[in-house]
């Protein structure tokens, strides 16, 4: 059944890259581009996009020209390819003229398989003339969402890429992106004149992963319960935000009879690689790690990925949870998150280097992550929708298995928001959720008395809810943008949306806090 071309691409996969077989979707794309077709590829991060142009570039005559905005990564990418014996080079603004001339000479002499170019290079006429004088096997446009106004990193340089086709009509083009919203997809196709190209859309769904997100109370104990009741003896990854909590959590698990190893950038290189090697080699080990762990880890039988802290973005969450269940067997993605996570991440964003636009982007990422946490709908549907894909309720996530009830939280929201407004009006701005909730519950703590908050008219007006329920209200209002948090102390502040709730009767539907974390009832074991 295999055509000569197919076996040639498979051979390159085996011989050069050392992999046995193509991943889902790769083969069709590789074959299509190898035989000269144009392609637009939407594939999740980590799905294996690079091979989709690297193998055709190696099989076809000439040099594969890769346009990538990730200038900082070019050296590493090229080094990695060279280590495999692939003749690769790059041209970007970080090089001095001598280095550039050397790469150009290699290109012209036909001594390269792959040439990485920063997009701005193609606005320079001399680069275009250079490409004319050599033989180009294909153009790969990586991070193709950069061409889109909808995308996160719009690059005017990318617009010029639509001209490639006019200048080199016979050279196949493959554009690749992991950003799959419908609007972006359509815009990439039209801006790069790839309407007639074959569109390959990989699914972002991982049906064997059960997504669960629970309120964080005693995270280490909650984790231990999960491991004991559902994952005893299983291999898994536990993600924590800080090195300190990685160490503490690993210690805690070990003390409770679970074989766990820490992994973070503060450990020396030998320990790190030893722990990683043991995780890959041995059965049933748990690695407790910062997000430094996992890149390029391809262990098929990771049965659970647990997050003890909120990931910074849905993309990150998807990538990290995606390390579970590569073998297709049932696996768990479990996340515990609480109000403190939101405060902490806000603080990180506010204090981060970079300009206002960068901070806005980080905020948008956090908001999307919060929305996923607080959704009353199927987690999978929400996750896929984030990546622009449709799906029906999965029947296998926590919200599907135990649909959260919703309740009319308008009055509760008004009580909470008016407390926030009062403290603000009195220029007492340094109060977080704890103080606000103490006031609502009518608790005469020393801090309440000290600031005379027991004389406020809202003091004690919220006794109909328990503290954990109020925390849920705060989290959900944050997720809905009806409340915001700022500064080092997690000060709660109002938003334009808050005013609608307070003064315009906007209704607020909230999800009821689960009494107990939903447990998997349909899980089938190996
Ligand atoms: P993407 O660009 O889509 O994020 P990469 O191309 O970087 O993903 O690939 C992600 C990881 O998967 C890399 O470590 C890569 O070597 C590995 N990989 C890709 N294809 C295969 C395959 N067919 N078999 C095994 N590993 C693969
Ligand atoms: Zn579901």
Automatic annotation (TrEMBL):
Which EC class is the enzyme in? isomerase
SMART domains listed in its UniProt record: DEXDc (SM00487), HELICc (SM00490), HRDC (SM00341), RQC (SM00956)
**Positions of the Helicase C-terminal domain:** 219-367
Q: Which domain of life is it from?
A: Bacteria
Task: Output the Pfam families linked to this UniProt entry.
Answer: DEAD (PF00270), Helicase_C (PF00271), HRDC (PF00570), RecQ_Zn_bind (PF16124), RQC (PF09382)
Write out the entry's keywords from A to Z. Answer: ATP-binding, DNA damage, DNA recombination, DNA repair, DNA-binding, Helicase, Hydrolase, Isomerase, Metal-binding, Nucleotide-binding, Zinc
As cofactor, the record names: Zn(2+); Mg(2+)
Q: Which reaction does it catalyse?
A: Couples ATP hydrolysis with the unwinding of duplex DNA by translocating in the 3'-5' direction
Q: Which residues belong to any copy of the Helicase ATP-binding domain?
A: 30-198
Question: Which Enzyme Commission number(s) are on file for it?
Answer: 5.6.2.4
Query: What would be an example GO MF term here?
Result: DNA helicase activity
Family of this protein: Belongs to the helicase family. RecQ subfamily.
What protein name is recorded for this chain? DNA helicase RecQ
The major lineage groups are: Bacteria, Bacillati, Actinomycetota, Actinomycetes, Pseudonocardiales
């Amino acid at each position: 059944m295999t055509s000569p071309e197919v076996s040639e691409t498979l051979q390159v996969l085996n011989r050069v890259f050392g992999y046995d077989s193509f991943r889902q979707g790769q083969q069709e794309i590789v074959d299509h581009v190898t035989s000269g077709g144009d392609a637009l590829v939407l594939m999740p991060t980590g799905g294996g996009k690079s091979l989709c142009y690297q193998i055709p570039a190696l099989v076809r005559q000439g040099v594969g020209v890769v346009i990538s905005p990730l200038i900082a990564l070019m050296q590493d990418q090229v080094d990695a390819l060279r280590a495999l014996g692939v003749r690769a080079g790059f041209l970007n603004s970080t090089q001095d003229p001598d280095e550039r001339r050397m790469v150009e000479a290699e290109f012209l002499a036909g001594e390269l398989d792959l040439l990485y170019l920063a997009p701005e290079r193609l606005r320079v006429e001399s680069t275009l003339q250079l490409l004319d004088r050599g033989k180009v096997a294909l153009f790969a446009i990586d991070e193709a969402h950069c061409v889109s106004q909808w995308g996160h990193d719009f690059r005017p340089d990318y617009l010029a890429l639509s001209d490639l086709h006019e200048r080199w009509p016979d050279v196949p083009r493959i554009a690749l992106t992991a950003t799959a919203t419908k609007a972006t997809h359509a815009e990439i196709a039209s801006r790069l004149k790839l309407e007639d190209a074959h569109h390959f859309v990989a699914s972002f769904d991982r049906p064997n992963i059960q997504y669960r997100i629970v309120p964080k109370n005693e995270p280490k104990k909650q984790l231990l319960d999960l491991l004991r009741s559902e994952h005893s003896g299983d291999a898994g990854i536990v993600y924590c935000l800080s090195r300190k909590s990685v160490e503490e959590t690993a210690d805690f698990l070990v003390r409770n009879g679970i074989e766990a190893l820490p992994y973070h950038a503060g450990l020396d290189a030998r320990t790190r690689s030893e722990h990683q090697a043991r995780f890959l080699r041995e059965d049933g080990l748990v690695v407790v790690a910062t997000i430094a762990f996992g890149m390029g880890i391809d262990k098929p039988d990771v049965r659970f990925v647990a997050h003890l802290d909120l990931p910074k973005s849905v993309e990150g969450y998807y990538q990290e949870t995606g390390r579970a269940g590569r073998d297709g067997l049932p696996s768990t993605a479990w996340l515990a998150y609480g109000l403190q996570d939101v405060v902490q991440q806000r603080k990180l964003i506010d204090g981060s280097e970079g300009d206002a636009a960068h901070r806005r982007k980080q905020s948008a990422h956090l908001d999307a992550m919060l929305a996923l946490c607080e959704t009353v709908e199927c987690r999978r549907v929400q996750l896929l929708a984030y990546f622009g894909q449709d799906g029906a309720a999965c029947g296998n996530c926590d919200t599907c298995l135990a649909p959260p009830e919703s309740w009319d939280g308008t009055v509760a929201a008004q009580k909470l928001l008016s407390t926030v407004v009062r403290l603000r009006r009195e220029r007492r701005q340094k109060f977080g959720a704890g103080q606000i909730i103490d006031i609502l519950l009518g608790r005469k703590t020393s801090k309440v008395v000290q600031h005379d908050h027991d004389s406020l008219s809202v003091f004690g007006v919220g006794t109909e809810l328990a503290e954990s329920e109020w925390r849920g209200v705060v989290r959900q209002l944050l997720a809905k943008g009806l409340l915001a948090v700022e500064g080092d102390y997690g000060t709660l502040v109002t938003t334009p949306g808050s005013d609608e709730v307070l003064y315009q009767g906007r209704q607020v539907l909230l999800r009821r806090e689960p009494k107990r974390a939903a447990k998997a009832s349909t899980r089938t074991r190996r």
